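Hi F.,

I've been meaning to write this up properly since the lab meeting, where we talked about keeping a consistent format for the predictions we share between groups. The idea is simple: the sequence comes first, exactly as it goes in, then the structure tokens exactly as they come out, then a line or two of notes. No screenshots and no reformatting. I'm using this chain as the first example so we have something concrete to point to.
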Amino acid sequence: MENIITINAEKRSEISKRASRELRANGKIPAVIYGITAESVPIAVNLADVKGVLKSENKENSILRIIQGDTSKFDAMIKEIQYDYLSDHIIHVDFIRIDVNKPVEVEVPVVLEGEPVGVKTEDGLLEFIHRQVLVRSLPTSIPKEIRIDISGLHLNQSIKVENLPKDDAYQLLSPANTVICAVATKAKEEVVAAPEAAVAAEAPVEGAAAPAADAAAGKGAAKEAAPAKGGAKETAAPAKGAAKEGAPAKGTGKDKAK
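Output, unedited:
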């Protein structure tokens, strides 16, 4: 990395939400420059310049020369970018001062090349687990990316940080046993019966329900024909008072004798 991108900045005199909104409305975004020995400085930069950095070859790992006025300029890198939580709009940027002659620690993307044999012929599934690794390097020697060929990767095999290509220009700081990618066995699909089949299994065989229904109907008819409990007694036994009604009333004979 040798290209240095120049960014013009202006110092922010007012730090408030209202002032930040005004900056964004004018195509600028609030930012802060941090340093190990120097104090942090609130600045404002053009949004277009930041977007240009992110589209460059080295993106966030680019070396920046921030120029503030006619006298102040320093080398820096992007430390962090804040986005609006409802969109992808950049709302704030943090820069960190650097010395191009002193190493820095940054994350570098890993790029996979080729199609694993475990996917091509062994019905495996490629899992890309860690897409970046931490490296230590001089700002001018930071790799744009670290590429690795995975075409010889078989089923249930993996690539770890220790398998990444080595280079004298940088030092890998991520743990050696960190898995970058792996070819895993596909999960077995659970077979679920179709709704129509389930309904057909629950439905009775044609004609089987009819005899059962007829038997149930016959049983009900027998119940209706049988007299209710106590019905015979009620029919045979005369109602109380029936004999009394047929017998002559008390005092009738005495009336005839008279």
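Notes:
DSSP finds eight helices and 13 strands in the chain.
The two ends are 151 Å apart (CA to CA).

If this format works for you, I'll send the rest the same way.

G.
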